[in-house]
């Protein structure tokens, strides 16, 4: 079961444990007491767990199952960092385009040190880095630019200067993991600031526009390259510069 | 009971279906009786009114003379137009025809075109032909308009009388002669029967409006005079098994004789 | 009697597909059977017009553009056929108050267009990651005047045919008990001919589904090959 496999919509995912003996009675008890957690791309349809999207099915501890798939349209999920653009200002907060079906709400008080008197002032068109705080299918998503527990910004907030590019959600997720080969390769030779939103947006800031473009191109090119190819591609881009 | 029906229309219908009955008192496989009045519109060249329970469709056919298509110089034209206006049900909005009406028009057009002899509409080759436009208007909507529309169109075509015309060879002017002239050459008549899968479980014949609201799949079977199938059209994701479709074809044959009887009166 | 393109009666034309070729769409697919080719781009879930908004599910919309000219009644009819085949297969309740827009562009119609358009649309939905219940595919066949049944007819055969049949089946629906998702049979035919066509199309759909599966699998593998590294 541990081995990830490719699933298509409608494929039944076998969630039964196969470890242990063939004794059916113990297995039944086991199955009843086990609580399954189904992640994205899976749904219970009638009596079986089926994939609803094409992707790779992963499992952990035989209780957690999820499908990773590459998409281009973001669907907000709680806790994920996103990059958005302020599109409107209301009395209570901002409307921010984060690429999902509905614009997200960013309350005026969801910033570090913000009070009713001391409000942040963001112009329309500002790029912000924020964390999704409320996400469910029935409500518009809400985002915040601070950690609600500590009250500190922790890197969230307005992204001034720099340049934001769009990429697939799969690529954004890979860049977000600390050892993305393309970022490691770039980081070794180019000083840069980078923010990755899991909504498929990447914000880049470097010393010169030319370097920013180089980094942007390198990231876009890395979509289908493995670690070795990434290093080679970055090397070639740097040589051309 | 009316309150229950209004607040929980689905649950209300379900109470009947689980008892193997329908609100209308019909059996699952029972169609509504058909009443056809031919020639109901005096000003049209052919017309018919069809009543199927509370669904009423009127078909009027207007004939005009025009030039034939260069590619088919001996063929006349037959256009169909189904109208589902706010007059027949609150479900429809005023304005351009809804998708449902357009799809019904197109589907009926595809069925009727091979069913009439378009060459019988030729007045003079390459010069003048008849262009028939059949307007099928829903007066009262209570489900299954497609069946009613097809029957209304067939009845109106049977009723159609084209006046004798003469073309003056010198001037090219077309002159109408005596009224009540020739009839249209009809290749085959169409006998439709629609079945609906209601609440994913119950296959009912000739669903009414309330039943249609709960329909997850519908099946149209159209037979010709010989009882051969000319169309099977299943839409929607509800599961209608292969065997059930075969049973529906048999039920459509029984419906055919009902329609035949109604057409001949 | 040989077929115009010398195929066996039960042989479908060469299938071809390209996934994700449109860079601005959320998901896209080009699907071709022989000379018939359709491109489909899917957007979704996106913001919906207030008029079309449903509080409990996504609104699904199909827009079809013909290869030549402006959309007419025929195209509206096919739009509705695609919608009716796919709408119930989309798990629309997972994304309430949104819109899933399916844009279909016909590139070339060399026969069996309806089936090709349905296949392109389902692949584009898979590519976009729109949650689906099952894989669905369609196939067409024709009964020729001499009674032969030919699968995946070209335009010339469709023109001469006594009856034309388009069937769509869900992947897990191949087997007993379950039925077709979509049927459009027209012409003049008896129940035996209908039954035979049902079987022919069911087998053809099986082949189309196997093709789709390998196309999607290879794309997923290509993307995850990097992820695993």
TrEMBL record, chain A:
* K Homology domain sequence ranges: 162-209
Keyword check for Nucleotide-binding: no
> SUPFAM superfamilies, from UniProt?
Eukaryotic type KH-domain (KH-domain type I) (SSF54791), Nucleic acid-binding proteins (SSF50249), Ribosomal L27 protein-like (SSF110324)
User: What is the name attached to this protein's record?
Assistant: Ribosomal RNA-processing protein 40
Q: Where is the Exosome complex exonuclease Rrp40 N-terminal domain?
A: 36-73
Question: What are the record keywords, sorted?
Answer: Cytoplasm, Exosome, Nucleus, RNA-binding, rRNA processing
Instruction: List the InterPro entries hit by this protein, alphabetically.
Output: Exosome_RNA_bind1/RRP40/RRP4, KH_dom_type_1, KH_dom_type_1_sf, NA-bd_OB-fold, RRP40_KH-I, Rrp40_N_euk, Rrp40_S1
TrEMBL record, chain B:
Every Exoribonuclease phosphorolytic domain range: 30-163, 193-254
Which InterPro entries does the record cross-reference, listed alphabetically?
ExoRNase_PH_dom1, ExoRNase_PH_dom2, ExoRNase_PH_dom2_sf, Exosome_comp_Rrp42_subfam, PNPase/RNase_PH_dom_sf, Ribosomal_Su5_D2-typ_SF
Its predominant location is cytoplasm
For the keyword Secreted, the answer is: no
* Record's keyword terms, sorted: Cytoplasm, Exosome, Nucleus, RNA-binding, rRNA processing
An example GO biological process term is: U1 snRNA 3'-end processing
Molecular function via GO: mRNA 3'-UTR AU-rich region binding
The subcellular location is: Cytoplasm; Nucleus, Nucleolus
Q: Choose one Gene Ontology CC annotation of this protein and give it.
A: nuclear exosome (RNase complex)
Similarity comment: family membership: Belongs to the RNase PH family.
Its protein name is: Ribosomal RNA-processing protein 43
From TrEMBL, chain C:
Q: Which residues form the signal peptide?
A: none
Where does the protein end up? Nucleus
Which Pfam families does this entry report, sorted A to Z? RNase_PH
Q: Enumerate the Gene Ontology biological process terms.
A: nuclear mRNA surveillance; poly(A)-dependent snoRNA 3'-end processing; rRNA catabolic process; rRNA processing; U4 snRNA 3'-end processing
For this record, the Gene Ontology CC terms, alphabetical, are:
cytoplasmic exosome (RNase complex); nuclear exosome (RNase complex); nucleolus
A GO MF annotation of the entry reads: RNA binding
The Exoribonuclease phosphorolytic domain covers: 11-131
Annotated keywords: Exosome, Nucleus, rRNA processing
Keyword Manganese attached: no
The entry's family comment says: Belongs to the RNase PH family.
Protein name, entry field: Exosome non-catalytic core subunit rrp46
Q: Does the keyword Cell membrane apply?
A: no
């Amino acid at each position: 079961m541990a081995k990830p496999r490719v699933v298509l919509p409608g494929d039944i995912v076998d969630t039964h444990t196969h470890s242990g003996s063939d004794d059916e009675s113990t297995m039944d008890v086991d199955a009843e007491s086990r609580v399954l957690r189904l992640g994205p791309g899976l749904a219970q349809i009638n009596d079986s767990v089926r994939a609803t999207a094409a992707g790779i099915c992963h499992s952990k501890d035989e209780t957690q199952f999820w499908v990773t798939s590459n998409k281009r349209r973001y669907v907000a999920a709680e806790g994920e960092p996103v990059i958005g653009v302020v599109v409107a200002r209301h009395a209570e907060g901002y409307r921010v385009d984060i690429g999902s079906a509905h614009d997200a709400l960013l309350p005026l008080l969801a910033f570090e040190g913000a009070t009713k008197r001391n409000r942040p002032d963001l112009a329309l068109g500002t790029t912000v880095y924020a964390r999704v705080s409320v996400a469910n299918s029935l409500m518009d998503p809400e985002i915040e630019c601070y950690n609600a527990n500590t009250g500190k910004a922790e890197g969230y907030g307005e992204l001034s200067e720099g340049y934001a590019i769009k990429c697939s959600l799969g690529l954004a997720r890979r860049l977000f993991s600390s050892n993305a080969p393309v970022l490691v390769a770039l980081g070794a030779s180019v000083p840069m600031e980078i923010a990755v939103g899991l909504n498929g947006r990447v914000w880049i800031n470097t010393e010169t526009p030319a370097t920013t473009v180089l980094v942007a191109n390198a990231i876009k090119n890395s979509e289908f390259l493995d670690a070795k190819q990434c290093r080679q591609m970055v090397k070639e881009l740097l040589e051309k510069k | 009971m009316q309150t229950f029906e209004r607040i929980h229309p689905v649950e209300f219908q379900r109470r009947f279906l689980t008892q193997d009955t329908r609100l209308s008192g019909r059996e699952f496989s029972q169609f509504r009786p058909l009443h056809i009045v031919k020639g109901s519109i005096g000003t049209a060249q052919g017309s018919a009114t069809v009543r199927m329970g509370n669904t009423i469709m009127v078909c009027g056919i207007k004939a005009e003379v025009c030039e034939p298509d260069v590619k088919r110089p001996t063929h006349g034209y037959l256009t169909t137009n189904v109208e589902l206006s706010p007059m027949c049900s609150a479900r429809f909005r005023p304005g351009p025809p809804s998708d449902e009406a357009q799809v019904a028009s197109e589907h009926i057009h595809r069925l009727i075109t091979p069913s009439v002899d378009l060459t019988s509409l030729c007045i003079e080759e390459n010069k003048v032909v008849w262009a028939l436009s059949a307007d099928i208007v829903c007066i009262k909507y209570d489900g299954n308009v497609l069946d009613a529309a097809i029957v209304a169109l067939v009845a109106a075509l049977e009723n159609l009388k084209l006046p004798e015309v003469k073309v003056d060879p010198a001037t090219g002017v077309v002159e109408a002669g005596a009224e009540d002239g020739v009839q249209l050459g009809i290749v085959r008549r169409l006998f439709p029967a629609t079945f609906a899968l209601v609440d994913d479980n119950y296959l009912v014949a000739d669903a009414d409006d309330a039943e249609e609201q709960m329909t997850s799949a519908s099946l149209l079977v159209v037979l010709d005079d010989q009882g051969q199938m000319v169309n099977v059209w299943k839409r929607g994701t509800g599961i209608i098994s292969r065997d059930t479709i075969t049973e529906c074809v048999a039920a459509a044959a029984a419906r055919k004789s009902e329609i035949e009887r109604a057409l001949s009166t | 009697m040989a077929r115009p393109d010398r195929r066996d009666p039960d042989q479908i034309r060469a299938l071809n597909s390209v996934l994700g070729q449109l860079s601005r769409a959320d998901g896209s697919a080009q699907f071709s059977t022989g000379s018939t080719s359709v491109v489909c781009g899917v957007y979704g879930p996106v913001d919906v017009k207030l008029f079309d908004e449903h509080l409990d599910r996504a609104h699904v919309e199909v827009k079809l553009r013909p290869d030549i000219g402006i959309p007419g009644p025929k195209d509206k009819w096919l739009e509705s056929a695609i919608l009716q085949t796919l709408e119930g297969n989309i798990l629309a309740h997972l994304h309430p108050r949104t819109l899933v827009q399916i844009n279909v562009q016909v590139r070339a119609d060399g026969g069996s267009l309806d089936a090709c358009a349905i296949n392109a649309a389902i692949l584009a939905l898979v590519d976009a990651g729109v949650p689906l219940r099952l894989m669905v595919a369609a196939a067409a066949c024709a009964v020729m005047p001499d009674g032969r049944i030919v699968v995946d007819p070209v335009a010339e055969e469709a023109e001469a045919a006594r009856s034309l049949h388009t069937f769509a089946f869900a992947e897990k629906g191949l087997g007993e008990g379950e039925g077709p998702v979509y049927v459009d049979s027209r012409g003049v035919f008896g129940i035996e001919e209908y039954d035979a066509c049902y079987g022919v199309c069911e087998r053809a759909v099986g082949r189309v589904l196997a093709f789709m599966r390998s196309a999607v699998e290879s794309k997923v593998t290509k993307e995850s090959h990097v992820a695993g590294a």
